[in-house]
Design a protein that fits this description.
single chain, about 230 residues, alpha/beta, Rossmann fold, six-stranded parallel sheet, 5 helices, 12 strands
Length: about 230
Amino acid sequence: MERYSPRKALLRSIDTVARDTLVYRVELDEPLPFKAGQFVNLAVPGAKPRGERSYSVYSDPASPGVLDFCIKLFAGGAASEYLRERKVGDVLDIRGPFGVFTLPEEIEPVTFVATGTGLAPFHSMLLEQERLGNRRIFRLFFGVRAEEDVFGVATLQRWKQSLNFDYTLCLSRPEAPEAMKEGCVIGRVTQAIADHSPEGHWYLCGNGSMIEEVRGLLKGKGLDRKQIHVEKYY
């Protein structure tokens, strides 16, 4: 089978992890080797201007036959409405892998900045680093709107023990600020990193306006553009 020809993916499970955010697990008819940070295209009947939508793989590259995707569903979106109707046992068509938003072995420290499901490629990268026993320095700034949009915290906490890793969870509009836990801050990720002196390589994924703002902020602090890597979701 050619690398980019459509492959059948059997939907094995659907788990809601936050408000309108679900993890879809699929089993492929043939393993699809990929690098952490890459994405695949999902066929979406009737979607315009093209009949596909792109999603980063959320799972570890060590399991190329079973892939996870963390996806936020938006009302009225062609792909969102298509996925909202899917059930366990349905068959999806995917193509890939695509993309160069990957993590070279030699760079350190690495700072990830994600909004919402922009966490997905970093989740794949860090699962791989955990499996390999890598002790490079990793830092994550993870932004969501409110408490109902938070997901993956148990894994982030585990990585604080298994990796040389730390994170800051940013809630731009928390509904109960007085109940926020240690490690959480009020505000956007751009506010959280404003006082940091950037070093190493920075990976940005998620909202396009966040990416442009953070990229400008990092360049303004003297970080070389070659040290800034971006994957725009919307």
